[in-house]
Amino acid sequence: MSEKNIIGKILYTQEDITKRAKEIAKQIDKDYEGEELILLGTLKGSIPWFTDILKYITNDARIDFITASSYGSSMTSSGIVKITYEPTINMYNKHVLVIEDIIDTGNTLKYLKAKLAERGPKSVKVCSMLNKESRRVADLHAEYVGFEVDDLFVIGYGLDYDQRFRGLPYISYLEAEDVESL
Length: 182
Ligand code: IMP
Ligand code: MG
Fold this sequence. Notes:
This protein has about 180 residues and is an alpha/beta fold. The protein is about 25% helix and about 25% strand. The chain is built from four helices and eight strands. It has helices at about 5, 15-30, 45-55, 105-115; strands at about 35-45, 60-70, 80-85, 95-105, 125-130, 145-150, 155, 170-175. Helix 2 (about 15-30) packs across helix 3. It starts with a helix and ends in a 9-residue tail after the last strand. The relative contact order is 0.20. Inosinic acid (IMP) binds near residues 103, 105 and 107.
């Protein structure tokens, strides 16, 4: 199958995403006014969304990153999560806002939040570009969500399939019926 045929329709354009990121950034500014905030990006998928939020908030914020790998197939996470890059910033008594690309089962973030809580932050909340509510397994709630998406395998704007398509300047999905055979 050619690459052209495996990328579906555009779900959200750059313009849609920018507009939504600005709305959420405004809300974050309001909610954390006068507080010390750390934006913690999850590598690698959150990079474009992370830079949008960072750019559009006007309050000062410190930044750091974390990498969590979830074992399972390339399409679904297993719930067994391993942190492969640890943030170095001191989170003690600071507000942490995890910037995520997508919440699917919620297993990854549930584990991450529990690990981050061990560092004694003042709060740990979540800002995810996308949310697949229908797929949720873990008891996990995101305080800020860019867009709700159906049960599709979405790609672009940081989201990958097997490390591909992260650079698309829009959010789309994999068209192929049997994506595991790509
Ligand atoms: P969860 O632990 O099931 O919530 O999965 C979270 C992680 O799985 C996300 O941070 C993504 O890296 C990946 N993921 C889940 N759904 C998709 C998708 O539709 N496209 C690309 N990556 C996804
Ligand atoms: Mg991923």
